[in-house]
Structure formats: structure tokens, C-alpha cells
Design goal:
two-stranded antiparallel sheet; 5 strands
Length: 111
């Protein structure tokens, strides 16, 4: 579903920051991570990065999904699931700058 994953140390290197700052980005919702089941290594979907920084509109969208009681894994699944009303996946819409439309749909999940 997600496709390509990125390791936290690789994000730290791309952003030229320490790994602890990447952990803070995850805690703050600027990025979402999951642990791979086979080795428990923490990974982030590569599409959450826009070059050397997180996708700008991701943090607010993650906040809405967390408010709707989504776990990080559930939020990732939702962001990468096709939504014919957008059209496409929410992550693609965020990358196109359609954060209002994505967040409107995410808010509806909490009701």
C-alpha cells in the first residue's frame, strides 16, 4: 500500500539534523512512523518527505486524525487508501496542496 519506506537516520541525514530531532518530529505529528514487524525497525513512508523536509500540510492532518482516535498505523493506512471523492489518495492530495479537502474528510472520521 505505502510502497517506499524511509529510515529515521536517513531522514536525519537528509534534513541535516540529529536523530533525536526526527523523533521529535514524529512525536509532534510532522511525520508518522511504524515499526516493521520483521525486525521492529522504525520507518516512515517516503512520500511524507518533500525533498529534505516533511510535507508541510501533513502535521495538521495528523493532528485531525489523532483527534479522531486513529493510531499512527491507522492514519498511514487512511492517507494511502484511494478516495474517489478527492480523487486519489489523501497523501497525494496533500502533496498537491489540497489540505482543506483532506482535512474535511479526516474530520468526518471523528463523528
Amino acid at each position: 500500500m505505502v510502497g517506499e519506506w524511509t529510515y529515521l537516520p536517513d531522514i536525519a541525514e537528509a534534513m541535516d539534523i540529529q536523530i533525536t530531532r526526527v523523533h521529535r518530529l514524529v512525536d509532534d505529528g510532522a511525520l508518522l512512523e511504524v515499526r516493521r514487524p520483521e525486525d521492529r525497525v522504525r520507518v516512515v513512508p517516503a512520500e511524507f518527505m518533500d525533498g529534505d523536509r516533511p510535507v508541510d500540510s501533513l502535521k495538521g492532518t495528523v493532528a485531525v486524525l489523532r483527534d479522531a482516535a486513529y493510531t499512527d498505523a491507522q492514519a498511514i493506512r487512511w492517507l494511502f487508501t484511494e478516495d474517489e471523492t478527492l480523487p486519489g489518495r489523501p497523501i497525494d492530495a496533500l502533496r498537491r496542496g489540497q489540505k482543506t479537502e483532506v482535512r474535511r474528510r479526516a474530520q468526518a472520521l471523528g463523528w
